Amino acid sequence: MQEIEEKKSGRGGAREGAGRKKFAVKSYYLRATEEVAEILEAVEGSKSKFVNECILKAMGRK
Question: Which has the closest alpha carbon to 28: 44, 47, 41, 45?
């Protein structure tokens, strides 16, 4: 019995390094006070990154 090799067209499929890079491991939802909400609304860029950096700084890990 002969095996028939399939020709690959080079189209489609996953590409190494493609797609969105993983940033978070877990999602948390919180209720912000009015003061905190004003601060977060003023943040340009990623609010998640901002909150992560603030927590690390507050805990002395950055």
Answer: 47
Taking CB atoms within 8 Å and a gap of at least 24, the contacts of 40-44 are: none
Is the residue at 23 inside a domain? no
Instruction: For residue 39, name the pLDDT band (cuts at 50, 70, 90).
Output: very high
Q: Could you give the C-alpha distances from 5 to 1, 8, 9, 32, in angstroms and in order?
A: 13, 9, 13, 60
| pTM for the whole structure | 0.62
Measured distance CA(28)–CA(24) in Å, rounded: 10
Tally the domains of the chain: 1
